[in-house]
Amino acid sequence: MDRGAMLTAALLCCWSCTVCVVTAIRRTDLFPFGDLNGDLILPEGDDETSRALTLPRPFYFFDSPFSQLYVATNGIVSAQDLPMEKQYVDDGLPTDFPVVAPFLADIDTSGGRGNIYYRLTETPSVLNRFAQEVHRGFPDAKFTPTHAVVATWENVAAYEEQARATGATNKVNTFQTVIGYDETDSYVLFLYPEDGLNFFGTRPKESYNVEIEFPARVGFSRGEVSFFIISKTDGPFYSVAQDENSVKRLSQVGNTGVPGVWLFHTGKRFSFQEIIPASIGGLLAVPPTAGYGLYLDTTTPEYEFDDYNFEPESQEEVDAAGSPDSPNTRSEDSDRQLSYNREDVPLTLEPVERQYAPPGFPLTVPEGRTQRVEEQQPQLPLEVVDVYPPLRNPPPSGGHVVSLDEEDVDFDTGVIQYTTENKETCARFQQQCSQNAFCSDYATGFCCHCRPGFYGNGRHCLPDGAPQRVSGKVSGTVTVGSTPVELNNIDLHAYIVVGDGRAYTAISEVPEPVGWAMMSVSPVGELFGWLFALELPNSQAGFKITGAEFSRHAEVVFSPGNQRLSITQTGRGLDEHNHLSVDTVINGNVPFVPPGAEVTMKPFKETYQYYPSVATSSSVREFSVGLPEKASESYTFHLKQNITYRDCRHGNLAATPETLQINMERVFVMYVKEERILRYAITNKISPIGDSSEVELLNPCYAGNHDCDTTAQCIPLEGQAFRCQCATGYRGDGQNCYDIDECAEGLSSCGDYSQCLNLPGTHRCQCQSGFELGYESRTCVDIDECMSSPCHISARCANAQASFQCQCLPGFYGDGFNCSPQADRLRSQCEQHRDSLQSGGQPSVGAYIPQCDSDGQYRPRQCHGSTGHCWCVDSRGQEKPETRTPPGTAPLACDLLDKPERPKTQCERHRDRVQTSSPDGFPLAGAYVPQCDENGQYRQLQCHSSTGYCWCVDSLGEERPGTRTPPGTPPTDCDKPERPKTHCEHHRDSVQTSSDGFPPPGAYIPQCDQNGLYLPEQCHGSTGHCWCVNSSGQERAGTRTRPGSPRVDCRTDEPERPKTHCEHHRDSVQTTSPDGLPLVGAYVPQCDENGLYVPEQCHGSTGYCWCVDSRGQERAGTRTGPGSPSVDCRTERPKTHCEHHRDGIQTTGPDGLPLLGVYVPQCDENGLYISQQCHGSTGHCWCVDDRGQELPETRIAPGAPHVDCSRTEEPERSKTHCEHHRDSVQTTSPDGLTLLGVYVPQCDENGLYVPQQCHGSTGYCWCVDSRGQERAGTRTGPGLPHVDCRTEEPERRKTHCEHHRDSVQTSSDGFPPPGAYIPQCDQNGLYLPEQCHGSTGHCWCVDSSGQERAGSRTAPGASPVDCRKPAPTNRAESVCERWRASLIEHYGGNPDPQQYLPQCEPDGEFSPVQCYGESTYCWCVDQEGREIDGTRSHDAVKPACLPSVAPPIVRPITRPDVTPPAKTAVTLLYAQGQKIGALPLNGSRLDAERSKTLLTLHGSIVVGIAYDCKENKVYWTDLSARTINRASMASGAEPETLINTNLVSPEGLALDAKRRLMFWVDSNTDVIESASLDGSRRRTLFDSDLVNPRAIVVVSSTGSLYWTDWNREAPKIETSTVDGQGRRVVVSDGVGLPNALTYDLSSGQICWGDAGTKRLECISPNGSGRRVINSDLNYPFSMVYHSNHFYFSDWRRDGVIAVDKVSSKFTDEYLPEQRSHLYGITIATTHCLPGSL
Fold first, then answer.
1. Which letter does DSSP use for residue 257 in this model?
2. What is the pLDDT of residue 1591?
3. Most-buried pick from 1259, 1400, 1556, 1621 (CB within 10 A)?
4. What whole-number distance in Å separates Cα of residue 929 and Cα of residue 914?
């Protein structure tokens, strides 16, 4: 018995001797788990493994580091990907691979039988709790976990065979393991709750009817370890339980003092070979008899709500809600004390004496007695997210505390007593509050509260009054009618104007079928309306209650139709930009809405009820669906929802009202077909229940009709008065607010080693390079780079603050990242630097020459021989700041400066980046060099030494506006406090973005006075236009003057009229970016001079136009697309194409003028294009037609005589194909010129393609046909003689090479996409013998069909093979060469150095020594390439291997031989990668004992397989060699290749023995072809309407062909005659992934195995008689029918499975010894069966 089992036995013995009844922990005492806690969920199944959990730091298991963990169905966590379960699930410990096994057994979660959750977490509460467990179990441990992995198996079941499924026990288990680790140690917790273990072992799958059960295994195994380099042996292991009795008692005892809790020390960075269990001193600490765990949180499963009453769905929920002791469902419990009645110990404290009691119990209890105490009111921790409504009144207390006399146990239990001294306080947990919140201590714990100026729940706080953005993803499946549409993580964005409760939601890339229908699903956007509703008195919006983490579950039932839709929306917190992140999952059915219909939602009011941690509502809504000229149809839907969140119950519980009413005044929904965007716009107010209209009439703040800025808060005053106050983080008068740059003004909360990043309304702290946020996410701590072993193996790593240093070990030289022995040392960097400056042995006059020491390293002090300056350098020769001394002064002692340097500041990095840009270490002449003080900070006054300008800067080196002074003037006093930037200064400085602080040429720069206000008159420095502006910089209508004309007197300011609705609307858009300009792509309303909406509105980005009414509302039916004639919105004529073109450009600049350099069309008084157009900037002129298109040959340069465009034009002919092609290129830039580098076709005067085309940029020329298509073999490079394109001969047909080449050249300019391989053809269209990849540089030889010749590939830079020499004749490719070529193709033609490629001799045989890539990981092989045991070596010296084959005199042809199967009437032939196997049938049973390999095909991938009963031959497709082959099934027979051209992915294969034909599918080219059995008479049957053809069968007796197409969008099974006639669909409904296909001759039905639906079904060829044979398949690939049985290859089991057609049961299974996928399967018989001929 191993040590672990002995210890467990001792514990169990002690347990059995006690007189006390000890209960286990409850389910609520497990670590928080579930999808709402960020857990991932393992897919349902019998043998599933999670994707790799990549660990930020290595996890030490025993003494080995691991960087990944995997969670598996069968109750284990492993540090490597798992093999198939059959290799371990029924075996005991040890295992072959690393295992943490809380309950290793054959578990099956198929059919919804439980869930398995897992996550990697750094949550402080989880780490805190884990640390306390370790400190109590190992009091002397100095352990602070940095990461934890939590894996939970909830209500999982044991695997049961199909035959026993009817007698299923329904027993399920729940258990959990938590792995915590830091830089050096790891510990593991096993937790087994009360009633968590109900089965204690599982039956082996191969037991059939034998009654046997293997108990679960619990423990740890290191897995196999290397032994003497080339061998492996079992590593150490530790068993906790391995028989039924010990497994049963896992939840009844423990090694931590708490039943059901087991703790182990499992790994250490240095030598650690034995698992160490926790001390057993506290084994019999007894929990309260009423159940373990105080009501720290009260949770129940999700409820249905009817009329606001809670109705649980199951008895379990009744128990959970009604009993104080019933276990609760999972919940996030980040802030609570340790679940099972234990006090918390923070990570920073030493372990306390073992004390097991919840808060509130007395300090001591009389020994041997029980005492009833009053239970505390349920309190919810701050980090709980999955919380549902508890009872309004807490249940009566019923807990008991039991204390034991020390005499009751056989060992020292220590003192058992209770304490309350470790409650959670602000001093220890304040980091869980928002940075904009404060923390308050209460009697039972702490709570977070937002600071004044912010709102939220304390954990998440947002600035008052600021607009809020939301982003997230939408997924799920929505069925419209009978059509399911998948929403695959499409984007959701929302924008909420908090000041007036408007919420705008947009979901993009919504497919059209569901986009129209989902207009009725407005509840998706209503969530954001509730969160940020406009608050009336005595109410609060949802975000103040929930914060940014919540879960909303809603169910919508539509009427009529009874369609049901579920909506789940999960708040994931605030991102780095303070945007709320919300993920949405939608599943169910919605009513059909006709395309083009309008959905009108009626306003409504809804009552929300609030409970601790949950808000609920239920309402009925009405909406109508209308089409033009049709009556509207009315619908309703019933909405039930609950929103769960975290609350803090330590503070004032009366803060949240019990009921509030949300008033959705306007609900607007729209689906934009062209953009595939679904939009919801909702105006929301929240108030106490009752009529709020009186309140709304009192003040514009409540009515939402105030004129405060969108970033301002409306403060109601008396009556109709109100005040606008800029939101927190903004500054201004309330009507115009600007973001405060907290970083520039020194208002940030960033600590040491962090950088402040400004955000709208707030800021964010980002750690400097070399630092990372600590686990509390507040301070920046140094990154220990040495933990990742960055240095060379022959170097040591020394960590330093914000950096590290690698130094080669003695006897080696290098930079620490690459170290080499001193014996062959190359020149160092210093020596190379020095020698490069000494030409001919003599340095250049005046040049700085580096000085190197004897080791080739830079001397610490460097001096310039010509100037006399000296300075200190680091190991890379870089000058150290502040060390340069002029000639004549004492140089610094550079050797003393090697103590760890502080990291460079931003100023120093800025300065040094300039100073090191010239070879001699001095700044470039004329460059601005920042000046830093002794601490590395920017000096407040900066001056440019070349220009003489000076200016003040902030702490980030940014120029303070208004402080720049020219040379010769007194500089600004930079010590004076800086006022905040005004709107004008923000606007001005946003334009001045060039590096020297000056604006780009031609840009308009606002002019501000000394107070930062806009000058009344503004002028454009480039165009000379001037105009008057108001206080916000907006141009005053009618004041613009041209250059040279009299200006308007802008000082005579008349009282401005109040803004109109249109101007408010327009300006609210124009002020959404910090500089007051509209956001790019945003729609900006257009107002006339009186401030009214222009009747016709257009979107400047999309080009759409529409008519609006006086309120700016779109008039139905008036929207027109870009380029389409617009509707006449008033009596005036609509704008012409020319005017639209002109005005679209003239309004794109901030000042309303065209952007400088942009071409502006000229229109006449009728709006038509003037016949001659000129470019104002370039001076070019040209003639245009009535659409503004340039007329050919009319463009003239500046100064040249103009073409007469006014002469009477003859009726223009229509454009030719060439002209269309040319003009589509010429009009792609705004100024009508071609884009640089674009190929522009050349057309003659008749519009036809010029026979010779040339690319103006590259210089290539080629001949084209009448359609402009390049004529093969005519392309010439720049400078080469051109082909004579005038001698037109009948063009020959394209060759295979030219087809191949031209299929790649698919880009619009006739050139291939970057990185693509382009075949090279000669002038006759044949493949050049040597082909090269232009991007990778690899070259190889090819044969006449373009196929690569084995062994001819060379890497870039290597000498290429002479491809002109003929390939060796009379020798087929060997096994080694075929395998090598197959793997090269598998690696994408460019294998990595570490990837294995077979090494072949010149004669094709395997080289005796085989190695992985360029490594020394080598071994010896025999003649067949098989590894010789005991020869594998990791040493620098390769093993000495004898040649496997004597050099032949005559080169042999190496071919595999056939080994016939055992003599039997019927044999199953199956394809398994590189071999074809033979499995005899004994009746209908699989005769596994007589199975053998028929044919071994190294380097092949055999997929399709068929058998010819007349000639006893097997046929197969080879996916690797891209061939179709056959071989006789006689002893010693050799394979024969039938087809080896124009195959890409040949898969399914079928054979018609009667007609002597074969048929196959190619899933890459999507074709079905046929040929004679010798490969001749090849023809294509079908090459259209195929997406993923897979299986194919032929019925010789009827001459019918059947095949499957598992197109995921529209899978189907089709049929035709063998000659390709009468094609039709047999079945398409209810089909998923139809992989396997066969024909049942006895019933005349076609049958298929579906890997998607997991069903085996049959149907008659006419579509009738469909029936399901079996509905529980795994993953069938290929199938054959024989004697009332179906035999199919299964990819999940990697074997052959038999199903009885009559009983529908699985009857047999064959699993080959070699584990790999099985592909095709067929029947081979000694004579042809009836129906096969």
1. S
2. 95
3. 1400
4. 6
Residue 1071, pLDDT above cutoff 60: no
Distance (Å, rounded) from C-alpha 1377 to C-alpha 1398?
Answer: 8
DSSP 312: -
Whether the CB-CB separation of 613 and 624 falls below 8 Å is answered with no
pLDDT tens-digit series, residues 320-334: 333 333 333 333 333
C-alpha 1504/C-alpha 1514 separation (Å) is 11
**CB under 8 Å, gap of 24 or more: what pairs does 1457-1460 form?**
1457/1495, 1457/1531, 1457/1532, 1457/1533, 1457/1534, 1458/1494, 1458/1495, 1458/1527, 1458/1528, 1458/1529, 1458/1530, 1458/1531, 1458/1532, 1458/1533, 1458/1534, 1459/1492, 1459/1493, 1459/1494, 1459/1495, 1459/1531, 1460/1494, 1460/1529, 1460/1530, 1460/1531
DSSP state of 1436: S
Look at residue 1012 in the predicted model and tell me its pLDDT: 81
In terms of Cα–Cα distance, which of 408, 261, 436, 243 is closest to 342?
A: 261
In the chain, what's the furthest Cα-to-Cα distance?
Answer: 121
Candidates 179, 121, 182, 119; CA nearest to 146 is 182
- Assigned token pair, 1450: 């005559």
* Pair 1701, 1669: CB distance under 8 Å: yes
Strand partners of residue 400 = 372
pLDDT value at residue 1149 = 53
CB neighbour list of residue 319: distance below 8 Å, 6 or more residues apart: 326
Q: pLDDT digits over 705-755, tens only?
A: 777 887 888 888 877 788 888 888 888 888 888 888 888 887 777 778 888
What amino acid is encoded at 452 in this protein? P
Comparing 235-239, 1110-1114, 1598-1602, which segment has the lowest mean pLDDT?
1110-1114
Distances (CA, A) of 855 to 339, 826, 877, 1646: 62, 11, 14, 81
Amino acid at residue number 1435: D
The three state secondary structure string of 63-97 is CEEEEEEEEECCCEEECCCCCCHHHCCCCCCCCCC
Secondary structure element (H or E) that encloses residue 249, with its range: none
Tell me, rounded to whole angstroms, the distance of Cα 556 from its chain centroid. Answer: 30
User: What's the confidence (pLDDT) of residue 1577?
Assistant: 94
Long-range contact set of residues 840-847: C-beta below 8 Å, sequence gap at least 24: 847/920
Eight-state DSSP code of residue 287: -
Q: CA 1146 to CA 1140: how far, in whole Å?
A: 10
Long-range contacts of 1340-1343 (CB under 8 A, 24+ apart): 1341/1367, 1343/1367
The set of residues, in sequence order, having a beta carbon less than 8 Å from that of 659 and lying 6+ positions away, is 607, 608, 609, 610, 688, 689
pLDDT at 33: 93
Q: What CA–CA distance (Å, rounded) separates 1436 from 1416?
A: 6
The confidence band for 1578, taking pLDDT boundaries of 50, 70 and 90, is very high
Output the pLDDT for position 929. 86
For the record, the structure tokens of 957 come out as 């080196």
State the Cα–Cα distance between residues 707 and 719, nearest whole angstrom.
Answer: 16
Is residue 1374 within 8 A of residue 1400, CB to CB? The reply is yes
pLDDT averaged over every residue in the chain:
78
CA distance 1571 to 94: 55
800: left (phi over 0), alpha (psi -120 to 50) or beta: beta
Which whole number is the average pLDDT over 1518-1522? 85
Q: What is the pLDDT of residues 950-1000, one digit of tens each?
A: 989 888 888 888 788 888 888 888 887 667 778 887 787 777 544 444 556
| Torsion angles phi and psi, residue 29, rounded to 5 | -90, -5
Residue 75 pLDDT exceeds 80: yes
Q: Which helix (H) or strand (E) holds 1063?
A: helix 1061-1070
Please give the pLDDT value at position 146: 92
Report the pLDDT value the prediction gives residue 1073, as an integer from 0 to 100.
54
